[in-house]
Amino acid sequence: MRLQIKGICHSYDQVEALRDIDFGIEPGEVVALIGPSGCGKSTLLSIIGGLLAPTRGEILICDKATPEGCLNPLTYVFQDFALLPWRTVAGNISLVLEDHGLSKADRDARVAEVLEQTNLWDFRDAYPKQLSGGMKQRVGIARALAVRPAALLMDEPLSALDAQTRILLLDEFAALFARTGMTAVYVTHNLNEAVRLANRVVALRRRPGTIKEIHTIDIPIAERREGMPELIAHESALWNLIRDEAIAADKELENVA
Ligand SMILES: Nc1ncnc2c1ncn2[C@@H]1O[C@H](COP(=O)(O)OP(=O)(O)OP(=O)(O)O)[C@@H](O)[C@H]1O
Known about the structure:
Layout: E1 3-12, E2 15-25, E3 30-34, H1 41-48, E4 56-61, E5 74-77, H2 89-95, H3 104-117, H4 133-146, E6 151-155, H5 163-180, E7 183-187, H6 191-197, E8 200-205, E9 210-216, H7 229-256
Helix pairs in contact: 2-4, 3-4, 6-7
Residues 12, 15, 17, 35, 37-43, 189 line the site of adenosine-5'-triphosphate.
Protein name: Nitrate ABC transporter ATP-binding protein
InterPro entries: AAA+_ATPase (IPR003593), ABC_transporter-like_ATP-bd (IPR003439), ABC_transporter-like_CS (IPR017871), ABC_transporter_ATP-bind (IPR050166), P-loop_NTPase (IPR027417)
Family: Belongs to the ABC transporter superfamily.
């Protein structure tokens, strides 16, 4: 799916959150949105996903190409997993397939397929309260994949997890993106995640949120490894881009507390 973000501006009452945001997302591309706290990353993701109408501008879907059997072209992965506690792993995944006119056999086949893809098969009958944070987020990913999306929209999907689980899931996301050629928009505070996963990184400045720079990382995602000198160089270039504003945003939050 090719998306064009065109002249997006958004204000919440008196707060001008985004101004004149323009860029394209190519099919199979992973775009990370980074920037200091409050620069409008989540607002932009919500606008791309159609959850929020922008004050001005539009999101153009330039080609309508979607995977076969796609039930929801733009699909969210939430940082807090958003699982139903009274449903099993398989039940949580199957939930998003209900009300789409699929037969039970089709639903079961899709659930089995994504359970395999996310290494959750052995946990299919477990309930969310029995799972670690990392396993819960795997269920979140499996649920998103079950609708065969054209693009995944991910809002800090690893931020609720401990450091070791983050590293494990980061490897799994990289493998997933490399294997499926999935189009994705990935919001993160974490520059390490951005350089592991993204083909391009959109760095935003704040007040109002505008594009500071679009940074390209031209190493195939499948070839990226933790600690690669080239990735460390990209991470440090990104930090130099947002450093001053990140420090200012941090001080501002400290003053409020
Ligand atoms: N519902 C809302 N009502 C009023 N102001 C809002 C609302 N949501 C966000 N804002 C403001 O809009 C600006 C952008 O917020 P947003 O959450 O999109 O930024 P962010 O970059 O995702 O922040 P963070 O990194 O802290 O999650 C901030 O100044 C925020 O306070």
